[in-house]
Amino acid sequence: xxxxxxxxxxxxxxxxxxxxxxxxxxxxxxxxxxxxxxxxxxxxxxxxxxxxxxxxxxxxxxxxxxxxxxxxxxxxxxxxxxxxxxxxxxxxxxxxxxxxxxxxxxxxxxxxxxxxxxxxxxxxxxxxxxxxxxxxxxxxxxxxxxxxxxxxxxxxxxxxxxxxxxxxxxxxxxxxxxxxxxxxxxxxxxxxxxxxxxxxxxxxxxxxxxxxxxxxxxxxxxxxxxxxxxxxxxxxxxxxxxxxxxxxxxxxxxxxxxxxxxxxxxxxxxxxxxxxxxxxxxxxxxxxxxxxxxxxxxxxxxxxxxxxxxxxxxxxxxxxxxxxxxxxxxxxxxxxxxxxxxxxxxxxxxxxxxxxxxxxxxxxxxxxxxxxxxxxxxxxxxxxxxxxxxxxxxxxxxxxxxxxxxxxxxxxxxxxxxxxxxxxxxxxxxxxxx
Length: 434
Description:
By secondary structure, the protein is an all-alpha fold. The chain has 4 domains: 105 residues, no CATH class; 66 residues; 113 residues, no CATH class; 41 residues. The chain contains 19 helices and no strands. Helix 6 packs across helix 8. The longest helix has 68 residues. The chain is elongated, with a radius of gyration of 39 Å.
């Protein structure tokens, strides 16, 4: 059972700040007038006010001995009661305490848990929470929220814990049965084989499917693609888990991830199948996410290398550009002399190409023009080439969607993949004939 410390069940803090006492435990004018009207004497008035302020914070009446002295002292001082006004009730000889309980409930418009439909409210909230939540702590918190929303006094924590545990067990059992019923005999056998270790293998197939992604190298990309192919090859179990909330599937997958094959073999079949199917679903999603992340990081690295190469080329071209500017300056000087156009043309030709060959100058201009802007895309290929085969494999195993209405790029990718498949088929056929 979940412990109270892990839930939202209200408790007194270990230490009270002055600000907290002022904000939470100071009676207002209406409360003071109500307490004066409802009691005789300062002792009963102090008791009623303490019960009121404590209930407002906890939503239940705690054991009187657990109420901190600092809270009692603060209420006494805030209500301008005498320092010797004592807080206490004689439960054996006087029914005052229970009358005060009733008075506080009526003043706040709260129903007691016992004798009302509060138990049904709790069970209904627990069932609704158990449909989407897998932890008893979350189910208990949901019941607390429901009771407070319905203006119902909170019961003892053990009551909420017992209800959450029973509802959680029933809901999980029903879920395990539902998933198991949707599996065929062949699918169950396939899942059982994941937990057996072949003589030649050190690990079971189940332990292999829990593999994580590593850094985005070509080797790890290939391994991850092979891992996704392995997962997809185990079959499609989406029908078995249809209708199961994603949050519950994640929790079940987390449980399965913490268990090894030996642990799973000791679990009842219905639960075992559900845990494995949830893990397979989770790992398929996670592996695709890892591949997408690796693709983004790898392409980012390729683009960075192309940009860096662009900067190096432009750095080397500075001297070349200075030479071209010098040539242009010389041409301007020739034209500025104001001579005959034909003579100027002959002088410019001799100046630009003393040997009569203009091709080197053309090549210099073309090279500077090609890399004068920020378009580094023509340089991508040499950095992408080594990753081409693994990227094509990646493109084949992932499903691609456009982030805009244009699907031109997806159409181009489809053509590339069709050509790739045809080439692989042709190569396989050729190898078969050799």
